[in-house]
Amino acid sequence: MNVFLWILQGVLAALFAAAGVTKATQPREKLIFQLPWVSDVSTPVVRLIGVAELAGALGLILPGAFDIATTLTPLAATGLAVIMVLAMGLHARRKEPQAIGFNAILLIVAAVIMWGRFGPHSF
């Protein structure tokens, strides 16, 4: 189960790192073309989301990899789960069911990591 959790952490970290870097660094106009919801959110909020996603991605991998402050891994998964719940609310308001589905999948993966790393398979 530990290997399975590491695989989930790696996949989730890669997805959130890519998304976070994109949201934190790309110009607003380019982001609106890629992510239409950006037009409903201020630029500082989009940047904050990007930085939070990048921090969550790092938190999924680094504590366990270096065996330092390992409680940060399930906390990072919890933070990413909260971001996904909020994202689902935004996409529900915009009537974007495909985005809600994708966010739900990411939420489930984060919840499995939370369960495993807070519970029976903690570091």
From TrEMBL:
<feature type="transmembrane region" description="Helical">
    <location>
        <begin position="72"/>
        <end position="92"/>
    </location>
</feature>
<protein>
    <submittedName>
        <fullName>DoxX family protein</fullName>
    </submittedName>
</protein>
<feature type="transmembrane region" description="Helical">
    <location>
        <begin position="99"/>
        <end position="118"/>
    </location>
</feature>
<dbReference type="InterPro" id="IPR032808">
    <property type="entry name" value="DoxX"/>
</dbReference>
<feature type="transmembrane region" description="Helical">
    <location>
        <begin position="6"/>
        <end position="24"/>
    </location>
</feature>
<feature type="transmembrane region" description="Helical">
    <location>
        <begin position="45"/>
        <end position="66"/>
    </location>
</feature>
<keyword id="KW-0812">Transmembrane</keyword>
<dbReference type="Pfam" id="PF13564">
    <property type="entry name" value="DoxX_2"/>
</dbReference>
<keyword id="KW-1133">Transmembrane helix</keyword>
<keyword id="KW-0472">Membrane</keyword>
